[in-house]
Amino acid sequence: MPVLAFLSVKLAVLVANLWWFPTLPGHPPASRSNHRDAALLVPLRDEAERIPLALPGMLAAGFGEVVLLDDGSTDGTAAVVRRMLRSAPPDTRTRLITGRPRPPGWAGKTWACTQLAQASDAGTLVFCDADVLLAPGAAHSFLGEMERQEARVFSVFPRHRTGTWSERLLAPLIVDVLLCWLPFGLLRMPVRSAATAHGALFAFRRDAYVAVGGFGAVRAAVVEDVALARAVRARGLRLGLALGGATAQVRMYRNRREVVAGLGRGLLPMAGGRRWLVLAAWCWHVLAYTAPPLLGIGRPRWRLAPALGLAERALLELKTGGRDWVAVLAVAASPIAAIPVIGQGLRRRQVWRGRSYAT
Q1: Do residues 57 and 138 both lie within one domain?
Q2: Residues 339, 208: one domain?
């Protein structure tokens, strides 16, 4: 039946990626010397609560310089960063700059990242979200894997740290789509559709950044990371990907409201603006993951589907290092938990970090 075929294909790709898809080393060496030609570029907008957790790791990661940009924060982010930088290691080149007003037609993050790229003359530009937790020496692992893959553009999917049930049920779906639908080997083939990225940790060699047009090429995009990855592949540039493991971790959302707003804003752009496709995909996932455990009662042919769903989520936790085995048992509830996300995603305007975007 179609449900079993769907789950079997996903599981087969995931099993291949268990060996195929690289993960940054769990214990990168603490670098005594910085990678002088690589800059860590961090956009900040109302990050006063998150940046104190992340900034020490960024400073100890081993990048040649760390440049932070305050993008119109109203919660005292700039003051928090300045206070922390006063106690930064003396051999770390760090700067906090103030962002300029956003021009019409630009999304907030694309404009902030464009300014960060202009503020550094480094040969490798590593854009990093303010909630990413980097291990000491992370630059060595990150840049080493980028070099190993001979990538001109490189993105890492950080390990998700979760707290609330909304996060535990829904945040792992980001990596699920990656590992269950993108066989890693396609990145070495001329398959333009094999293009994705995670905006939390996204790096460019300077020449590749210029060739693709930088963030200005996708200035209005709400899901700018995937849009840029597609532009990279269309240009024939080598795109590299990896999982963050213990070297790069993130807690993207901290409550149900943030999960709904954060995941919902990307649904329509990823579906090409087709609302019917968003609804159809959700209905299909209800049929594939939620219905089988109920229909399997007294119907033996439906019992294999729940087993495949559980295996998929368990292997995903194993590969990413999440190890949330309790959430594995609740995989059938994920489509139901996604109902508010679907409702949010179907709206014509999305609000994120205090800014409104049309979708």
Answers
A1: yes
A2: no
148 shares its domain with 34: yes
Q: Are 38 and 145 in contact (CB under 8 A)?
A: no
DSSP 23: B
Q: Work out how many domains the chain is built from and give that number.
A: 2
46: domain CATH number is 3.90.550.10
> What pLDDT sits at residue 352?
76
Asked if residue 265 and residue 245 are part of one domain, the reply reads: no
Instruction: Evaluate if residue 153 carries a pLDDT over 60.
Output: yes
Query: Which pLDDT does position 295 carry in this prediction?
Result: 78
- Measured between alpha carbons, how far is 222 from 357 in angstroms, rounded to an integer? 8
Do residue 230 and residue 262 come from a single domain? no
Distances (CA, A) of 129 to 125, 143, 308: 13, 17, 34
Q: Are 170 and 238 part of one and the same domain?
A: yes
Residue type for 152, please? Answer: R
pTM here? Answer: 0.94
Asked whether residue 357 is assigned to any structural domain, the reply reads no
The strand pair at 159-160 and 63-70 is best described as unpaired
Closest by Cα among 308, 309, 326 to 167: 326
Strand pairing of 132-134 and 63-70?
A: unpaired
Q: Are 112 and 216 within 8 A, CB to CB?
A: no
Beta-sheet pairing, 201-205 with 349-352: unpaired
Tokens of 266: 């990307």
Q: How far apart are CA 216 and CA 106, in angstroms?
A: 8
